[in-house]
Predict the 3D structure of the following.
Amino acid sequence: MSEPMITPGVPDTLELRLELIQACRYLSELGFCIGTWGNLSIRVEQGILITPSRIDYSTMTPDDLVVVSWENEQIKGYRVPSSELLLHQAILRTRPDFGALVHTHSPYASTLACAHKPLPVCVEDMAQIIGGTVNCAPYVPNGRHADLAQAAASAIGSQTWAVLLANHGPLVGGRSLAEAVVAARVLEKAAQIYIQSQSIGGPQIIPDEHVIEERHRLLYKYGQEQLSQMK
């Protein structure tokens, strides 16, 4: 089963920029990001719209956001783009089905990343929204952005909507920014449940064939089944 392709970017509008800032602040309120750590991006027509480096989300304005082309030319914005720009570019190139990326340091997913442990599918909504086991990419020291990008792109695979960066945190994708934010929340909840379930014998992992079935239903049937039955 292949994912829907979302390669063409969306227009870079004021509304889109405000949505991106709102998502940043929302994730901060959830405790997924602290200070200026974490970064978000959206695939736009001219390249990637991404959060700037070292600008607090609480004071960020639409003009602070940066657009960078696929050739690394800064097209819009006067701020320095996120230091993890190469990571976002690599994943968006690897996964044309992604329209947006959310990188956070959410506690439970980061716990697994620090343990260098993958997150198997143990919860129904993880099967639907994340789509498979979340691998942990090898550890890359801070500042080696090209190496981190390569490690993450190799680890994420072609179906699952997330990857763990060892000793760092999760990176989660979606067809839209709203979907990526939801996926980040589902990933964190699943990580919490997985870790807590270890104290009672460990979770029963959902078989791959059922994960595929659940994922397909969300992508292609969810919200349509009831309508078809009413006709």
